[in-house]
Amino acid sequence: MMKKNILIKLTTIAFLLLILSMFSCSKENMNLSNLNDTFFLRHKNADMPVNIYGNGSEKVFLIILHGGPGDQGLGYRITPFVEEIEKNNAVVYFDQRGSGSSQGNYSKKDLSVDLMAEDVLALAKLIKAKYGNDSKLFLMGHSWGGTLGTATLLKNQNPFLGWIEVCGGHNMFGGYELYKQLLPQTANEQIVLGNSVDFWQNIIDEVKNIGPDYSTENHLALNTLANSTGSVLAQDGIINKSQVELADKTPISNGLLNIWNMRKTGKILDFQEGLNLIDFTNRLNEITIPSLVLWGKHDLTVPLALGIEAYDNLGSSEKDIFIFEKSAHGPMNTEPDLFANKMIEFINKHK
What we know:
By secondary structure, this protein is α/β, with parallel strands linked by helices. 48% of the residues lie in helices and 16% in strands. It has 12 helices and 9 strands. Strands 1, 2, 3, 4, 5, 6, 7, 8 and 9 form a 9-stranded mixed β-sheet that branches. α10 (304-313) links the parallel β8 and β9. α2 runs parallel beside α12 and α3 packs across α4 (144-155). The chain starts with a helix and ends with a helix.
């Protein structure tokens, strides 16, 4: 019996060594220069899709945190990423918990900003486990992704070599007063120029109709008005029209699932965390890794003043800010070549 047990143990050890050697060989033989990889991050009752494309020959990975909450990672796989950034480094398109094609339990205890930040850190560990502990990670957050990225870095910034905030929401609450100030101000400027007068007059009227006291409903109403301005600014030539397309053959999530996730995620986070009350400004000095702040000059969804606030308060000794003159909330769409250049320059400097 003892010999049989020893034989079983030796067989088990041999099997495990074989599996480990196969995994090691697969890492070595993996074509990192042209990655096209899809897998799931399973973490705390959620399965979250991860799609990686691009040049991983130097094991440099850019993790994108999409907007929303509730958008999807592959929605960012547009021409400046595919034609330029993916040729420079690998890009990680990640569906956050409760977003895109991710699946799981999304009760109040299963969905919070803190838990979603833990997901990002778990993703960083998974990438290093899959491609090697010498992998070099950069983090980019756009819009709501700026909120999540900031929360992630405040938990642990050690896995990342650099942080890129693009029109990010590190201070959701600060947007409220800026909306009340900037929406009428921009409307009056555009009316003087004779641009879309009826639209901008309606903006003025709608802002007046929103009550003076803060509430989640008033904040959402102002945010909705701000979101509506981008297309009109493009139509009148204040910003560029979108110059990009979604990459060919990019698998996008099921539309109904995406809508369901977006609505449910937003409601839970608003109810549980008071999402619009989040303000990390006083803690930005804790973020000390190299940082790049990218913003559209005409962004009313997350006004430029918040970008300047982010830059001023970040604790990094190596930080920079760039303002896109012909963009609003999506400079990657409206000034794609310049956007890609700024991203690549930052990544190559700090990789």
